[in-house]
Amino acid sequence: MTPKKPKGTRKGFTTGACSAAAARAATLGLLTGKVPEKIESLLPNGQRVSFAVHASSVAKDHAQAVIIKDAGDDPDCTHKAHMTVAVCILSDTANQVLLKGGDGVGTITMRGLGLEVGGPAINPVPRKNIEANIREVASDMLQTKSLEVTISVPGGRDMAKKTLNDRLGIIDGISILGTNGIVHPYSTAAFRASVVQGVEVAANQGQQAVVLTTGGRTEKFTIRELADLDPACFVQMGDFLGPALDSAQQAGIKQIIIGGMVGKVSKIAQGEVITHARRNPVNTQLLADLAAEVGAEVSVCEEIAAGETARFAGERMHEQGLADAFYKALCARVVTTLEARYPGVFSYRILMCDFDGEKLVDYGV
Predict the structure, then answer these.
(1) Residues of the chain with pLDDT > 70: what percent?
(2) What's this model's pTM, rounded to 2 decimal places?
(3) Integer Cα distance of 182 and 13 in angstroms
(4) Which residues pair with 228 in a beta bridge?
């Protein structure tokens, strides 16, 4: 027996790769009168992979095929999505492959994504890959006719509610994505790319500020506190502060607003631009030094230095009645640290909340 791969390591396929396979299968059905049960499809990375065709239909000038997306071990809301592609013949033109978005595929409403406003949310690489697969099998037909290709995703509107698509100006469905066709489990590269894209969208909307938050709780907090800002300004950066700031600098953003809790803010204060917990631990000595600066007793500073978390430091400073001064000193250190890395590039504002989403400090107003 072939040993199973450990959980969390099984790769899957992107919505783009599955759409391309379904398009290829439907096109073959159009040409031969029967959609194959399996289809070997070309991925953007050059690999050829076999996909099972879940359902299909063929008429005189129309064929449809469905590929069920397998995201592998990635916790993707589009896992098991029925990527549905209908291909029909256009007899009045030649040598064109026209891509359309059907139900469940998002519509672009903002500039900054490299896609036409009003068009379907089918990214450039999947577009090329879908067309390449169709042209491989239908080159002869395309000499005299064109093909219209419509991608649909039943349930895509509900799937999109679990994404940040609406923040990027993509409405009513999911995006057809994938730069190489393969989904890597828990892909940090994909998340990093989404952070950069979010900053670019804000800049393309003419926004002068971006609000970089470390997660859902801090995002809700900052949206509540900064209700006057456009939704495009809010970008969940997660652990990727460095890529977000680099992108903001390139895009000409002037103000950086950071929303976070004490642990992540402490990481930034000590110079971490990738703030994942598995990287460097919180520098509790730095927190102890800041506590001393605002008047904490020596014994309390020693406890903070010997502790393991920033949350403990905050709790002890609350007990001392010095929390506000401590958090302001921590935010000031964040600004000093970032200014050293990006001298004269940004103005900064730091909003911190507790674990219940309640405001601790608004620094730099």
Answers:
(1) 92
(2) 0.65
(3) 5
(4) none
3-state secondary structure of 81: coil
- Picking from 183, 213, 239, the residue at the C-terminal end of a domain is 183
pLDDT in tens, 7-21: 456 788 999 999 999
Contacts of 93 (CB under 8 A, 6+ apart): 145, 146
144 and 288 inside one domain: no
Orientation angle between helical segments 310-319 and 284-293, nearest 10 degrees:
20
175 confidence band (pLDDT: 50, 70, 90): very high
Domain span at residue 233 reads: 188-363
Cα 274 from Cα 242, distance rounded (Å): 6
Task: Mark which of 163, 183, 203 sits at the end of a domain.
Answer: 183
Q: What pLDDT score does 307 carry?
A: 85
| Helices of type H across the chain | 15-32, 124-138, 156-160, 188-204, 216-225, 241-251, 262-269, 284-293, 298-306, 310-319, 323-341
d(C-alpha 364, C-alpha 331), whole Å: 9
Taking Cα atoms as reference points, which of 118, 116, 109, 107 lies closest to residue 174?
Answer: 107
Distance of CA 80 to the CA centre of its chain: 19
348, 354, 357, 359: CA torsion to nearest 10? -50
- 8 Å CB contact between 89 and 95: no
Q: pLDDT tens-digit profile of 95-147? A: 999 999 999 999 998 866 778 989 999 998 999 999 999 999 999 999 999 99
- 78 shares its domain with 213: no
Q: Can you tell me the distance from the alpha carbon of 21 to that of 8, in angstroms, rounded to the nearest whole number?
A: 25
User: Hey, is 84 helix, strand or coil?
Assistant: strand
CA atoms within 13 A on the CB side of 358: 1
One domain, residues 34 and 176: yes
What is the DSSP pairing of strand 82-90 with strand 62-68?
Answer: antiparallel
Compute how many other C-beta atoms are within 10 angstroms of the C-beta atom of residue 324: 13
Specify the amino acid at residue 297. Answer: E
**Please, are residues 101 and 120 in contact by the beta-carbon 8 Å criterion?**
yes
CA pair distance 174, 165, nearest whole angstrom: 7
